Amino acid sequence: MQQPSLFTLHAASLVAGQGKLSPKRPRVETAGMADVFPYYAGFSFEWACRELARHSTGPTQRVLDPWNGSGTTTLAAGLLGMPSVGVDRNPVANIVARLRHEAGRAGQPVEPPRRIRRSVSDHDPLFSWFERKTVARLRDWMEMVVALPEPQSVLPQVALFRAVRSLTSHFGGSNPTWVRRTSPSRPPIELQRQELDKLLLEEQEFLSRRLAAESAPSANGLLLTASSRHLPLRDESVQLILTSPPYLTRIDYAVAYARELALLGEDVFNSRRVRSELMGTTLIRGDVAEMNLGNLASDLVRRIGEHGSHASAGYYLKQACQYLDDLTSSLREITRVAASEAVMTLVVQDSFYKDIPVRLGEICGEEAERLGWKVSETVPFEVTRSLTSLNRSARAYTKGAVDENVITLVKR
Length: 412
Description:
- This protein has 12 helices and 9 strands.
- By secondary structure, the chain is of the alpha/beta class.
- 36% of the residues lie in helices and 14% in strands.
- It has a 7-stranded mixed sheet, sandwiched between helices. A two-stranded antiparallel ribbon has the order 6-7.
- The two termini are 35 Å apart.
């Protein structure tokens, strides 16, 4: 009698323990190394493992997350022994995803660079938070680290992300997706070279200890910096899709990671290159061409355009149209790369525009069905924490509760 595979045993144990588990990440999550660099968006690692195990028929199925973020889907797939592809336009997210997926192979702590830089460009984006000597030393570190071969460069890069995020924590605010810059009340940060070197050594040691305690995934994960609107994959090459598209809440993910992107040389405040390409961006790329939308999305566009509030018929209408165009373009690409009978699970949170409910879960379901998918299951979870009340001007409008929906679809 053939013995069950490790995948079968692991998947069975995950499914057996499943009640109605919410996909929402807990306030503090250590499972799947989510704590090494907490990412605002996404779902919990435990939920991702269970969801993949529930729908998978074996370890040969290829998993895709077209909005992979910090890599929860690809890590869960790898630990189940399933090959995966994670796509995200944000290079910071991809570096963190690579750290989680590589586990013990992600490099060792490196000693401080010997070079002491005397000058830096006056246009360095790190000047948004740091004074000149500190910027120069951060550039010494980055120059040394990016010259390392992969995956040895991953651990010290994430250590730099953690250090910069920690040092600039007081530039944050009530909105977790926005970051301020220097001002008369927030002067630039000045550190002695020895202080900064010590902090970066400590961050590397923390990551090294944290990763040494983790199991490395047993299957390969391909992590790509690309757009969900143009997936660099062959037709019908994936069998499972597990993902959470950016929500229609005007969350500017590029600004949320402006400090880490600055380390990589990206200035999101003065350059549109990365910021405008992210789905859900608050920047308008230009007028959206005529869209072919379903009834629900078309009705939302109409209601926003007819709303009596300031700029509803202008900027906010354009932003919603741009988002819906990105969403439908991405769903078409997912459909192209999905094999026949592929299963797609979407975690989608509803929201509000002023007092207009944005039923994003239903919109996603309708748009996917128009592309040949069939909704097989929708499970709602009440949202207790959301960003709907952060915008002070929007608080004047009456809002109800919102749901986070787990939508399962099958490609027909």
